[in-house]
User: Which sequence fits this backbone?
DNA sequence: AGATGATTATATCGCCGCGATACATCCGAA
DNA sequence: TTCGGATGTATCGCGGCGATATAATCATCT
């Protein structure tokens, strides 16, 4: 997940960890955080795996006389680009889970149209399932359920209903564009 | 988190892991899952910590001639009950984060009224912050932002706005009840 | 000029929880 | 009768979090 997001962001420009985290926060702030406690170890791992590489960052070094490396600026390697494309193209069942879906959607512009569609439809199915579960829970219990739990379920139901409507619009739009491309 | 939920559920009746998981799914299904991969290790840990204890489950054993223990039924210990009350009473800043908030709210009936209020207000503040962040992101970028990201932000903004309204209602209701109790 | 606090920046540690996987029983339906 | 689906417990590796440490830079107030 973090890996996908980092690859996506570095696709635009080389960046250091702190900057990545800020951009991540703006890009995904609606539904995902990512702490430094995951970011820095992930950068290390990706570097070891050869997906990203540390830039010499010459200008930065020239400015600093005390010889201490203040920033680690990373750039995508060729393998990193490959990996990114691969991750975007292979949409699996976990792709439509809460946390992953948003990250994938944030990079839809770089995702093939058919994969976009698969993800949107998969997500819709997933949210519809949850919606039905909530409907059942609300219907089943009737009066005997705890009132706060019911309030929680009611809110959840409304949210899922709204998300399904939202997804329907997105899917319709995608289909319209597909038609435009074809005909 | 899981610990809190388990303590809350076992407060009603002794249960085995599988049953706990099902109840968990119904109770928190709107926003939280909890897999067996977390459940069973957590039960072990809680047992070691003395928060829960394994029941003899006599009826179950009598049924089974092959001598194999099929179910591990757990019950709350006195310490477990203490711990539960403690966890409910001590509402901290992480209590209003996405995942924790729902779990806490699911046990509001057992939570002191003043703590309920603190949690609801804390949550509201938290969601308002996110809402402002999303508004800023949407305003700032104007046209240059990626269209899918914008769609994501739009959806996020609507959700946060709705949740704030929902919380306002809940808070108002709590206040009304507080007045009823006082006057 | 000096203090002070916010921001920038990297890093690690222990813990929580997830997904995959394994294994075994029980039950109903084809 | 076999076979899939529920019931039931368990473990492993890893992704990610929150807390925490450290330190330089920059703006602001006095």
Assistant:
């Amino acid at each position: 997940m973090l890996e996908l997001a980092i690859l996506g962001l570095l696709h635009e420009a080389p960046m250091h960890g702190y900057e990545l985290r800020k951009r991540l926060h703006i890009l995904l702030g609606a539904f995902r955080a990512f702490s430094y406690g995951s970011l820095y170890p992930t950068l290390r791992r990706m570097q070891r795996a050869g997906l990203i590489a540390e830039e010499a960052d010459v200008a930065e070094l020239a400015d600093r006389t005390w010889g201490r490396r203040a920033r680690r600026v990373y750039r995508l390697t060729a393998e990193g680009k490959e990996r990114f494309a691969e991750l975007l193209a292979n949409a699996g069942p976990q792709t439509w889970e809460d946390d992953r879906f948003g990250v994938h959607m944030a990079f839809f512009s770089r995702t093939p149209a058919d994969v976009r569609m698969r993800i949107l439809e998969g997500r819709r199915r997933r949210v519809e399932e949850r919606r039905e579960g909530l409907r059942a829970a609300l219907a089943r219990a009737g009066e005997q359920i705890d009132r706060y739990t019911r309030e929680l379920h009611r809110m959840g139901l409304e949210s899922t209903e709204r998300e399904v409507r939202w997804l329907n619009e997105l899917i319709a739009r995608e289909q319209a564009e597909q038609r435009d491309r074809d005909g």
About this structure: Residues 16-19, 36-37, 40-41, 44, 69-72, 94 of chain A lie near DNA strand C (CB under 10 Å from a C1'). Chain A touches chain B through 31 residues (CB under 8 Å).
